[in-house]
Specification:
Blueprint lengths: L2 E8 L2 E7 L8 E10 L2 H9 L22 E9 L11 E5 L6 E5 L3 E3 L6 H4 L2 H13 L8 E4 L3 H13 L4 E4 L3 H9 L4 E3 L6 H9 L3 E6 L4 H9 L1 E9 L12 H6 L4 E4 L17 H13 L11 E3 L4 H10 L6 E4 L7
Helix pairs in contact: 3-4, 3-9
Length: 340
């Protein structure tokens, strides 16, 4: 069997390369990828050479080649000798994998799919765990109001999950009119322009004094400040967007300290590795929850997919991602590869 993988070889450059076919070790599984999803914000940073991709690194030095593709789905084609949770032929969602035709991961990172869950929806589930963790950390209660600031992929996923979790009203905010219109189709109760001069006043009018919970997805300092202007006393704000710019200027005394606002760091790695507890779930448990919501009809993701490409189109896809400010939700269909 031949294997191919999307590799970022230089800033702004992606190539589909021939790579070695991995062999699963004792606790690993080999998955033939069906679908992998482009995570636009993270992968833009990776392909352009942003040194602030990893929160664990203090180095300003960037090295190529690089890779990504952490949210995918496929079918198990081989298993290690000690694997017990999945078998050959099982359809699985894969987390922390890569954009490759065949990928080898620990069995814990290959989660069996319930009947009726499509491979396309399953390939969105790991990305969907990011806003799910953010919502959990804010301890959203049934009937509380929510503001979602920023309507990229994570914001749109947060919107659908907030609706499933019982938030009401849900206010979606983005400067782009098309995104606001899309948010209303996805279940937002209101969709507002955060750059409008009366934005905060409008949010407080809708919610009767301010929102209980906000998911800040932009990672932009001015957007966080605007979000804080919309909060109810003792509100909770989840910092889901990657705040890679260190130059934030916030009036913490008046906008956080005084009203008792809770700011919650919601990077997806800021979660337990092995055991879930209230508000803090492991990635695997969140992914299983996503699959249950899909299987039970509480969540629908497939309509979010805007473009599907063969991996052979990766150079053009990533050239667009590096250059365009607004990028659609894109998946790679690995079944479109020739001679696979």
């Amino acid at each position: 069997m031949e294997n191919k993988q999307i590799i970022f070889t230089a800033p702004g450059i992606a190539e589909l390369q021939d790579v070695a076919l991995p062999t699963p070790r004792e606790h690993e599984v080999l998955v033939k990828t069906a679908v992998s999803t482009v995570s636009a914000g993270t992968e833009r940073s990776i392909v352009t050479g942003d040194p602030n991709v990893s929160i664990y690194s203090t180095s300003e030095e960037v090295h190529f080649p690089r890779q990504s593709g952490y949210s995918s789905s496929g079918t198990v084609v081989a298993v290690g000798s000690a694997v017990t949770s999945v078998g050959v032929g099982d359809r699985v969602a894969v987390y922390w994998g890569c954009h490759a035709l065949y990928q080898c991961v620990d069995e814990s990172r290959a989660v069996p799919l319930p009947d009726g869950v499509s491979l396309e929806s399953a390939a969105l589930c790991h990305i969907g765990c990011f806003p799910m963790a953010a919502i959990r950390k804010c301890r959203l209660e049934l009937g509380e109001s929510m503001l979602i600031m920023g309507l990229g992929v994570l914001g749109m996923l947060a919107l659908r999950e907030a609706r499933a979790a019982g938030a009401v009203p849900i206010i979606a905010a983005d400067p782009v009119p098309e995104k606001r219109a899309q948010a209303l189709l996805y279940g937002a109760d209101f969709a507002l322009d955060p750059l409008a001069p009366d934005f905060a006043e409008r949010v407080k009018e809708i919610t009767g004094g301010g929102v209980n919970v906000a998911i800040e997805v932009t990672g932009v300092g001015s957007a966080l400040e605007t979000t804080l202007d919309c909060m109810k006393k003792f509100g909770r704000v989840s910092l889901l967007g990657c705040t890679r710019d260190r130059n934030f200027t916030i009036d913490y005394y008046r906008k956080v300290h005084g009203p008792g606002i809770t700011l919650v760091g919601a990077h997806t790695n800021a979660r337990p590795e092995t055991e879930s507890s209230p508000g803090l779930w492991t990635t695997r448990d969140d992914l299983l929850a996503m699959l249950r919501l899909l299987s039970g009809g509480r969540l629908e993701l497939s309509s979010m997919i805007e473009e599907t490409h063969s991996p052979e189109n990766a150079p053009a896809v990533y050239a667009r991602l590096a250059a365009e400010k607004f990028f659609p939700l894109v998946q790679f269909d690995w079944g479109r590869l020739q001679n696979t």
